[in-house]
Amino acid sequence: MIEAWRGLAARIAGYEEEIVRFQSELVACPALGPDNGGRGESDKAALVRDWLDRLAPDEIMEIDAPDERVPSGRRPNLAALFKGRGRGRVWVLSHLDVVPPGEPSLWDSDPFVLRRDGDRLYGRGTEDNHQGIVSSYFAARAFRDEGLLPALDVGLLFVADEETGSGLGLDYVIESKPDLFSPDDLIIVPDAGDEYGTMIEISEKSMLWLKFTVRGRQCHASTPDRGVNTLRASARMITALDEALPRTFGNRDPLFSIPFSTFEPTKKEANVPNVNTIPGEDVFFFDARVLPGYDLAEVKARARTVAESIAAEQGASVEMEAVQEAQAPPPTPADAPVARALARAVAAVHGREALPMGIGGGTVAAFFRRRGLPAAVWSTIAHNAHAPNEFALISNLVADAKILAHVFLGG
Ligand SMILES: [Zn+2]
Hints:
Elements: H1 2-13, H2 16-27, H3 42-53, E1 59-62, E2 65-66, E3 74-75, E4 78-82, E5 89-95, E6 115-117, E7 120-122, H4 130-146, E8 153-159, H5 170-176, E9 186-189, E10 199-204, E11 206-215, E12 219-220, H6 230-248, E13 262-268, E14 277-278, E15 281-290, H7 296-314, E16 317-326, H8 337-350, E17 355-359, H9 365-369, E18 375-377, E19 391-393, H10 394-408
Parallel strand pairs: 5-8, 5-9, 9-18, 10-17
Antiparallel strand pairs: 1-4, 2-3, 4-8, 6-7, 7-19, 11-15, 11-16, 12-14, 13-15
Bound molecules: zinc ion.
Zinc ion (ZN) binds near residues 128, 129 and 191.
C-alpha cells in the first residue's frame, strides 16, 4: 500500500503540464445551460469523453436527458467506470456546466481563455467545477499509468445542469439509473470546501424563502385614522418574526459554523412613491436557513401565526407564501466511510486534520442524501466560484488528485 501510494503520488506530481492543458481545453469550451443563455454542455462532454477514452475505462455510459432548448437536443451526463479489486465502489461527481462570466469589465482577461500566472489558472470554470473534473480524472489516470488496480471500483460522473437546478443532471441520472448507486458506495462531490482541504461537508441547512404581503388601506398621511398603515404593520411583523422564530427553533448544532438556524428579513418591495401617503400594501421577505432536524412545515406554521396575530392587532391582513423551499435531507453520518476515507487521505496529503461540517447553502449532494446515499462534499479551493477572475491553484489540483487517488487505493 505504502509503495503503491508513493508511486501514485509521484506520478500525479508529474502531471502538472497536462493538468494545465486539460484546464485550458475545458475553459475554451463554455458550457452554459439554456437558462443561462447557453447551448448546453454537449461540446464539453465530448471533450471530456475524448480525454476519458485515452484511459480506456471498463465502461462508459451516456445518460443524456432530452432538452429541446439546446441545439444538440440533450443534456449530457457521462459515467466512466474503472474496475478495482472489488472492495467496494467510490464515485466522484463533477459538473460540466459553468455560470456566465458576468460583467466583462470585471475580468482582467478573457474568461474563456486560460491564463496562467504562477500557481494560478484563471478562467471561468477553473474552480467550479473543473477542479473536480481534472483532479478526479488525473487520480484515475495515475492508476492506469502505474499499472495498478484501485482497491475500489471507481466511477467518475460528469453531469449537466448543476448550476440551474440539476433536474437534467444528477437528479435525472439518479431517477433514470437508480441501480447505479448503492448506500455502501463512497460518494464524493468535489464542489465546495476550504483553502486547507479540511472541510468535509456532510450536512446542510434547509432553505425557506417567505414572502409576506400585507394589505391595509391607503389614505392621506394627514388623516391616518382613515387608513390602515401597512408599513407599520410590516415593521411590527418583522420584529415579531425576528424575535419568535429563532426562539421557537432555537436548537444548536456544533457541526455548523453558524451553529443555529437563521431567519433574516431581506428584501422589501417599494410601496408608495411619495411621503404623504399612508401605504395600503407592503411586501417583504425572509430568508431562513434552518437546521436539518426541523420540519419546514412547522416553521411556516409558526411564521404564519405570528404574522396573522400582528395583522389582526393592526387591522390589516397578511398573506404568506413560500417562494423557495428546500427541506434538507438527513445528513451523511459524521463517521460514514466516505468521511473517514477522505479524512485519512487529507491527513496523508495535506498533513492536516479534516473535520465533518455543515453549511448553510444547498449543494447537489442533497440529491444523493435524499435517497439515502451518503455523499460528502469536499475539495481544496480558494472560494472564488462564480466570481470574476475565477482561478484554481495548480497545487490544489495536484493535491486533490492525490487525495482522490488515496481514497481509490482504499487507504
Ligand atoms: Zn459547482
